[in-house]
Amino acid sequence: MVIQKIMQNTMEWGLVVLRLLFGIVIVAIGLEKLIDVTGFRETLGITGIPSQLAYLVASFEVLGGLLLIAGFIIRIAALTIAGIKALSFFWAPYMDSVIISGFEILLILLTLAVIIAMNKKHKFSVTLQ
């Protein structure tokens, strides 16, 4: 009983750390795209995705990351990020070889977003009922 409680508490705190660090990484990725939006637009254009979506995608990443850090509407933020990463993962084969070599990172980010979205109860968070 005591061990089970310790393990549950440890897992909850582990998810808090995961959520915070993942949010920081996603904000950094989004900011990088916003800083070099011209390069990001060109990358999207190469894949056939409308380059006008560059601002939207980068903004969603920054906003989603900030929401994860703040602990607000975590599931929606994580699912939005998961959607962006899933699309990126499936479009990666159409990109040049420099980007293809990073597909494993996209898969890791997608997996982390899904893990965060699947958790129903988050410490230090605000949820909408």
TrEMBL record:
Gene Ontology CC terms, in alphabetical order: plasma membrane
Keyword DNA damage in record: no
Record field: transmembrane: 13-32, 53-78, 98-118
Keywords for the protein's UniProt record, in alphabetical order: Cell membrane, Membrane, Transmembrane, Transmembrane helix
Keyword Transit peptide: no
Localization per Swiss-Prot or TrEMBL: Cell membrane
Membrane topology per record: Multi-pass membrane protein
Family to which the UniProt record says this protein belongs: Belongs to the DoxX family.
Protein name: DoxX family protein
